[in-house]
UniProtKB/TrEMBL annotation:
Protein name according to UniProt: Iron-containing alcohol dehydrogenase
SUPFAM superfamilies reported in the protein's UniProt record: Dehydroquinate synthase-like
A Pfam family: ADH_Fe_C
Alphabetic keyword roster: Oxidoreductase
Signal peptide positions on this chain: none
Residue ranges constituting the Alcohol dehydrogenase iron-type/glycerol dehydrogenase GldA domain according to the UniProt record: 9-175
Amino acid sequence: MLNFEFKNPTKILFGKGEIAKLSQEVPKNAKILMVYGGGSIKTNGIYEQVKTALKDFEMIEFGGVPANPEYSVLLKALDIIKKEKITFLLAVGGGSVIDGVKFLSSAALYKGAEPWDILANSIRTYEGLPFGTVLTLPATGSEMNSSSVISRKETKQKLAMGGPGLFPVFSILDPQVIKSIPQKQIANGLTDAFTHVLEQYMTYPIGAWLQDRFAESIMQTLIEVAPKIMTDPSDYTIASEFMWCCTMALNGLIQKGVPGDWAIHSMGHELTALYGIDHARTLAIIAPSHYRYNIESKKEKLAQYAERVWNVKNGSTLEKAHEAILKTEEFFNSLDIKTKLSEYTTDFSSTGKIIEENFNQRGLKGIGEHRNLTPADVRQIVEMSF
Ligand code: NZQ
Ligand code: ZN
């Protein structure tokens, strides 16, 4: 196992009715900015639950954060935070709203002139305005980690930021919120969480047995709940499993002591920036090609995953590795998630070249667990995904 430090300060309140405890978690005398998305919370009862729980607090609202949280929209919320002297932020939404609030948390205390520099110059956040979350969509794990991904339409960029100052103070996870999520978003959540585990597992054997088994158990549970949650999102038992899997997939625990890949996410973010394809779907497009391209360096872990997660018993290490990639593709397809770029856009002939240039420009010379995938390799992987 590699050396590691682990600290995750986010308090989780999990279960039925936990939203009512908001008033105990928000600091007394806080002036709150409640941030939400396009309005789903107004039709599924979550908005009323939050308002009721916080009726004794001074609270201003900011709605309209879009999926793939947009910089220009967030700047309007930043104005309000400064003008109104907000002291606490509350995100009520999925990964996009939570990520948007993380950006606001950092930008509110940022001393520079242009908050975009936090993303463009990879400035880590050690102190942010405190915030909590009410999660409405299990997928990203943003509710219990310190990362955020922000989009900027004007420049077709989607960049990540983070730092120890960006953990939520608390996150409320009530699996009952899942019943109003459209099937397409549930499929996205399953695919995103599954790929988060893959990014931290599908590298090379390092002797981290427990970490491997944590990762495998999250994937096995996601595979088991997937058909059930797709058909009945109101099943509380299944919804609970789904929600906790998504949080555990990216709260830092399974990344400790093991190498991380994260190349699929780096390439996927480019596809969202260029074409607006949902985050999870970009991962399903890239993952199979990424694993085929890197089969030599990843074959041991791919074969272990084939055996332990997909019960593949026969064949050589290489044959099992190939079988694992097919099983992963079939899993995504079973959720009605397409795995080829050409199934999302007809405008793909120069995508590989554009992404190669973007990576060169940003100085991303080596990605993946060995930091040896060059922009030219990235181009080939993207082109294999057409
Ligand atoms: O905006 P509203 O009206 O609320 O509707 C949302 C949105 O349209 C809807 N929704 C959410 N909860 C619902 C609901 N509809 C009905 N009932 C509910 N209970 O779902 C749509 C998608 O929401 P969004 O927040 O965009 O989805 P997700 O949670 O998948 O977040 C995706 C974003 O997170 C980033 C992605 O890149 C993307 O920008 N990620 C963040 C990560 C992190 N911070 O650690 C890691 C991930 O890898 C990812 O990159
Ligand atoms: Zn993701």
